[in-house]
Amino acid sequence: MTATAPVAERPAKEPKQPKRQQRFNEGTGRLAALLLSPTLLVLGLVVLFPIISALRESLFTSGTTLDENGFIVKGSTFVGLDNYLDIFKGDTGHRFWNAFYNTTFFTVVCVVLETVLGVAMALIMHKAFKGRGIVRASILVPWAIPTVVSALLWKWIFQADGIANQLIGTQVLWSTEGWQSKLSVIIADTWKTAPFIGLLVLAGLQTIPAEVYEAAKVDGASVWKTFTRITLPLVKPALLVAVLFRILDTLRIFDLPFVLVGPHKDSVETLSMLAYDQAFNTRYGPAAAYATVLFVYVAVVAYAFVKILGADVIGEARARKPGGGGGNGKRWRKKNAAQGAPNTAVGAVTVSGGGGQ
Amino acid sequence: MAVASSLALLATACGSGDDGSSSGGGSSAAALEGRGPITLASGKDTSGNLQHQLDAWNSSHPNEKVELKELPDDADAQRQQMVQNAQNQSDAYSVLVMDVVWTSEFAANQWISQIPEDKVPDLGKLVPATVETAKYRDKLYGVPITSDGGLLYYRKDLLTAAGITDAPKTWDELLADCQKVAATPGGKGMSCYAGQFEKYEGLTVNFSEAVNSAGGEIVDKDGKPNVDTPEALAGLQELQNGFKTGAIPKAAITYKEEESRRAFQDGKLLFLRNWPYVYSLANKTDGSSKIAGKFAVAPLPGKDGPGVSSLGGHDYAISSFAKNKATAMDFINFMASEAQQKDNLAKTSLAPTWASLYDDPALTKQFPYLPQLKASIASAQPRPRVVKYGDVTAAIQQAAYDALSKQSDPKAALAALQTKLQSLITQ
Amino acid sequence: MAAVAPQPAEAGPLRRWAPLLGVAVIVIYCLAPFYWMVVSALRRPSDQFSNKIIPSPFSIQNFKDVFAGSNGFGRGLLNSLIVAGTVTILTLIIGMVAAYTLARLDFKFKNVVLAIIITTSMFPGISLVIPLLKLFIDIKWINTYQAMIVPSLSFALPLAVWNLTSFFRQMPQELEQAAMVDGCTPAQAFRKIIIPLAAPGVFTTAIITFIAAWNEFLIALSMTNKKSIQTANVIISQFTGTTGRDQPFGSQMAAGVVVTIPLVIAVLLFQRRIVAGLTAGGVK
Would the CB atoms of A60 and B19 count as touching at under 8 Å? Predict the structure, then answer.
């Protein structure tokens, strides 16, 4: 446990090389393996095992033929990649690309809206004022309502003679095909999960020492500059984790469009719903193939996200490479903060001067 | 065969299981043997009467008690729990309370046991149409315990005010009645008719009824798709024109049972197609219904005479993986008995399958719609009885929904549906 | 330029009222749909379809229905609490150990481990049910708490590990080193220095984990078939109207209120205490 974290080391690169030798020893590796084993064991049992069996499943098909007595011939047939190829063929392919588009559309729109709203919520929650607890609690409410119930609630709100139509004074048929059904899903999803990002970002904000802000204030940095040049970089790790997990969840979105609008509606059908539809009709091979395709898509998006934005999230690789870039002084924050605020203050001065406020 | 079964073993994830003796033997009527405690998998007991019935059984069968396993309210979720348990050959559920449209799929997969007809002494006393729903390839796989048929609810007060004495028997009469009522002060601002047209199982029911009532069919007697016909077209066009002319309100495309009931209860509809459950709710005088005492029921209207309802209801079946199947069989017979069905109707208002109960004077007094319901159920058509029912109903919904919501060409929709059904019902 | 910069506090109405306005907007945004849920629950079942903003007459019938004896909803709440509570505690313990390892120890394949952990959050949940059900039937876990706890644990761990790792990585290493110089073991240093400093992150992770486990439905539904072990969400899904076809919206909303409000109050009450407690051991 004597290892030095790159966090603290980042500003001073010189002493790094010698220490690295010590860190890469057998003992550390074994200790790490020991400490990580509970996590990996649980994940392996409950998630990895089913994923692997689903991957295998996706190469088989079953239950497609009847014998002379009308019974489904039991057993599975190995079909190679047929289940995958079928996804992209003809009508099915059309449906797949439509669902692919919907999934991507929901993810982009919802996550962007949720990020903006969530950060705004976090900033407001972070402001010290009376009744902060109440505000925090009310922001928590949408996230705390079980999805099963909140989907019903929104369905009720968006009924033909529901409160939403009464408020806007016209009868929009929200659950019918078209932009309105997409909109209803976006509204309901954003409402429910913006607080998730809000909570995680708030936690990030709370670890920023007050001195940093005081220094910025002394230097007369504008609110916007303080936000973009100090707050945002400092909460970036927390924000990125929150956004990343929102992306993973929204790419797998299922409940809301299913309950709110309904199955088999082109406007809101997502990839998860396609996988569900196959499994519902007991075609487990194709269902597993859909699930795997979605899985690969999610993995690619997540990888790209981490590569492009998330150097700080799993930034170990970059930190190890001297001159690997990406740091841009994001990691020295705690150290600097702990040592007092002069550096930050200087930064803030530069910022405010450059901004021409 | 050996290759197939070794591959089956490889595909452990869905637990398709090894090839047991049952698939080769032709008849899977394994003897219903074994006595002891069993379970009943059912959607929630709405009135508490089911538990009451179970208590009656349990007190007389202390060694063969039945435990109720409550499933979610949603029918799809119920089916999924049953399928998952069958996939894993679990014996958690002994007796399954199954929607009538699941029979073929469950029987073809051998998830439920065949029941020799001589094991059900009362079979002949049940409404024949309901018994048909429990059959697959002429073999019995369950016993119908409750039934359901569509009824035409109509505003008797407004029809009378417009000088109309009888409920419409045909679709054209229904539309003409709407014209007449619209001309009276009471009919202002009302819509003519609604059923259930949201894209879900209810749309399959309503579409089938329109097609059957116009003399068409979706699958013929031999189970072959036959929906690309002038009769079916006439049925679909009735609904389509209803939407086009406004006789059916636009919002009806979002209606399930409850939304349509609400519109009727709020006095927005002159005619409503719905199930018997609406009767007592719409007659409530606690303020929830504006039309209590102002409506009556009639058989569904058809093209040239009374229409044809789709058949609903539930069959009790025995899971293939259950223990104590002899007990399960006895229990099902107990539930099918006249005494239990009568009790159940009186307490829950669920339509019985015991034919003579529909003519019981005391019950008819309690449920004035029983004669109409009897007619509805006796002439009702089952929805397509096919193994891939999930795909078939989805295809029907797709065709009907597009025709109604986008006003697309109905002829083309039916032609496409026919092609789709042919590929789904080839076996 | 600094002179021109707006001064905080008495710097005009906009500066003073803008945050309050923002607060109001956000609070209304979050609570308006919830308000609708509450008033829907407080209507008489016969007024269920009403769109009145304030229920009149006011009725708690829906809440009575929720707790009606045959529902077993009280027991369901207790089961939810047991499952979600255990999941939260286990997630925090296991997750913190893993996160600290990933944040502080330097070893090969660290990125691979992080990647594997998050990969488990990428598979559609609905596709996991059938293989898991088979597994749990084989190991006789059906109708047990662990059949719900372990999957929820695995759903919660990726976020917990990633989030905590990002927090721990920001903690100043010098403090731990100083503590160890003072004679603390690494474990003690972790407990007394790092956790208090990362308290906001730990606390947030706890809330999010608890809520996620509290709201889990699919696994809880599939892995249980005994009423006495089913969670509140599963019980809610079993609510029916008087006849099976009419939807008991009022009691579903009432149940939603019942499962949400205590959660929020508990978070409110505990947050100060927990944060205070965690921070108390920390650096001054």
Answer: no
